[in-house]
């Protein structure tokens, strides 16, 4: 059982970005504007579709977000890679939440399907992450998960076999 709560607001996530939540040298989120989540609604080490852990989180969309001005002028769309990064951020956050130590980094993703777009008129992204594997050995700390991103309830991104690790170096 984690020593941390099962939900986090933006202030909590900013503490994580500054290295204040899980401690120095451990899992951190990026600071804005690269922070792609505003709140974690629920997190576990044993929930989700496979009983290996999950994260449910949200990101508020507004027309003044930094990427709409440059991607693309006259046709603003959130880059799909930022939605994928939000999934990776939350997968690493779950590992730190479990109390596992080390700095997080993405290892890859098996499959990505982009079936919709995030335009400035959208209001909210919902991230749904289900772990298929979470392991901590003497040499490796890693989470493997599937994820979905919804924009105002519409599934727009689906990923399989996302991998995030923690490393002491």
UniProtKB/TrEMBL annotation:
It is an enzyme of class 4 (lyase). Signal peptide: none annotated. Its main location: cytoplasm. One of its GO terms (biological process) is fatty acid biosynthetic process. It comes from the Bacteria. Pathway: Lipid metabolism; fatty acid biosynthesis. It catalyses: a (3R)-hydroxyacyl-[ACP] = a (2E)-enoyl-[ACP] + H2O. Keywords: Cytoplasm, Fatty acid biosynthesis, Fatty acid metabolism, Isomerase, Lipid biosynthesis, Lipid metabolism, Lyase. Its EC number is 4.2.1.59. GO terms for cellular component: cytoplasm. InterPro entries: FabA, FabA_FabZ, HotDog_dom_sf. One of its GO terms (molecular function) is isomerase activity. It is found in: Cytoplasm. Coiled coil: none annotated. Homodimer. PANTHER family: 3-HYDROXYACYL-[ACYL-CARRIER-PROTEIN] DEHYDRATASE, 3-HYDROXYDECANOYL-[ACYL-CARRIER-PROTEIN] DEHYDRATASE. Belongs to the thioester dehydratase family. FabA subfamily. This is 3-hydroxyacyl-[acyl-carrier-protein] dehydratase FabA. It comes from Jannaschia seohaensis.
């Amino acid at each position: 059982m984690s020593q941390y709560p099962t939900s986090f607001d933006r202030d909590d996530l900013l503490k994580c970005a500054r290295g204040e939540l899980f401690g120095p040298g451990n899992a951190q989120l990026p600071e804005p504007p690269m922070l792609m989540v505003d709140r974690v609604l629920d997190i576990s080490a044993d929930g989700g579709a496979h009983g290996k852990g999950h994260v449910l989180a949200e990101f508020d969309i507004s027309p003044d977000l930094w990427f709409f001005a440059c991607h693309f002028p006259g046709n603003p769309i959130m880059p799909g890679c930022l939605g994928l990064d939000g999934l990776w951020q939350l997968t690493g956050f779950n590992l730190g939440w479990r109390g596992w130590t080390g700095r997080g980094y993405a290892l890859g993703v098996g499959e990505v399907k982009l079936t919709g777009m995030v335009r400035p008129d959208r209001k909210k992204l919902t991230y749904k992450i289900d772990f298929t594997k979470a392991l901590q050995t003497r040499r490796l700390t890693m989470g493997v998960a599937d994820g979905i991103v919804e924009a105002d309830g519409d599934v727009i991104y689906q990923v399989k076999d996302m991998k995030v690790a923690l490393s002491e170096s």
